[in-house]
Each structure stands twice: as C-alpha cells, then as structure tokens.
Amino acid sequence: MAVSSIVLNKNPVQPLGRSIDVTGSSRPDLDGEIRDGRHLMTVRVYYEDTDFSGIVYHANYLRFMERGRTNHLRLLGAGHRTLFEEAQQEAPGFAFVVRSMQIEFVKPARMDDVLEIATAPLEVKGASVVLHQRVERDEETLVEATVQVAFVSGGRARPIPKALRAAMKADRDTSGAD
Fold first, then answer.
1. Which residues pair with 42 in a beta bridge?
2. Which domain covers residue 83, as residue numbers?
3. What's the CA gap between 154 and 151, in Å, rounded?
4. What is the pLDDT of residues 54-79, one digit of tens each?
5. Which of 21, 29, 49, 51 is catalytic?
6. How confident is the model at residue 83 (pLDDT cuts 50, 70, 90)?
7. End-to-end alpha-carbon separation of the chain, Å?
8. 3-state class of 47 per DSSP?
C-alpha cells in the first residue's frame, strides 16, 4: 500500500523520500519571523531541556538564544551555509563569536512550556553587533540578555560584510531602537 502523504492532526506532512529543502533557506515554521524590527521564534521546552526538578536548566536558555540569533540572520538573508560560503572569499576562516553577554534570569520555564525568543539589534558597528534578547512565556519575561557578537577572521576582529551589516542596520531601524 503506497502512502502519498502522512496526516497528523489533519495537516499533511511530507513523507521521507520526497523533496525536502535542506539547503538552509528560511522556513517560517522553523525559523520564526521578523516583526516590528524584532526576530520572534517559538520554542517548546522538552524533558531534555530541564534539570531534575523539571525547570529549564540555566545553560539551555543560551542554546535557545543562539537559535534565535542564528534564525534572525537566516531571515535577514544570511543563513549560516550561505554566509560561510560568501564570507570565505572575503574573510577566510571567519566566525561570529560571543564577546560578551549580560544575562538576568527572572523566572523559570518548565517542561512543555511554549517560549518566545525575541532578538533585536541595539547597535551595529563595523566588526560587531549588540543584540537584546528576551525569553518570554505568555508575554512574561523569564530571561533577558544583552549580547555583543563580534565578526572574527584569522583570530582578529574584521568588518562585518557590508550586505549583512546593512541588513542588520535596516532591521534595527524598523525596531525603533536608538
């Protein structure tokens, strides 16, 4: 018996063996969206994200925020794979590295909570960007962080590629951040 599609909760899902995009291009169902100058992404808390007491282990918030930063770049048109390929010509061996992070843990998240990760650029410089990130549950702030990310190549800070810097500045301008 051949199956043309699998149905879960009345939503068709593409079965294995069919064409699935694995190029790193944007998928709103996975990557979130940019709205009002902020990247918004939903994350569900799984058992593996929690400690023995059933609350999210503190280091996992860093993972959630890293996904938010990565998907923010992807939606700006700078998916990691594409960015790596293009930047290798301009700045071989480049990387984005977290230079500093100030983080405040306000309230805990628990297993099965649905969290929203918000990422907004505060300042875009030549070789770095400062981002404000917030983890919320039902519009209640759980974790808040300010993150400075530097663009590095050959062990030294280098200018962020112009197209990416311009996209981040344009995104910042629509957020109303000063």
1. 116
2. 29-175
3. 10
4. 999 999 999 999 999 989 888 887 65
5. 51
6. low
7. 60
8. helix
Tell me, what amino acid is at 68?
G
- State which amino acid sits at residue 29: D
- Residue 37 maps to a domain: yes
- Sequence-distant (6+) residues with CB within 8 A of 134 are 117, 118, 141, 143, 144, 145
Whether 51 is catalytic is yes
Asked if the structure places residue 2 within a domain, the reply is no
Single-letter amino acid code for the residue at 51: D
Q: CATH number for the domain including 49?
A: 3.10.129.10
159, 162, 167, 171 alpha-carbon torsion, rounded to 10°: 50
Contact between residue 43 and residue 56 where contact means Cβ atoms under 8 Å apart: no
Domain count, the chain: 1
* Residue 19, domain member (yes or no): no
In a domain, 93, yes or no: yes
CB 130 within 8 A of CB 40: no
Whether residue 110 contacts residue 50, with contact meaning beta carbons closer than 8 Å, is answered with yes
Strands 11-13 and 38-44: unpaired
Report the alpha-carbon angle 109-111-115, nearest 5. 50
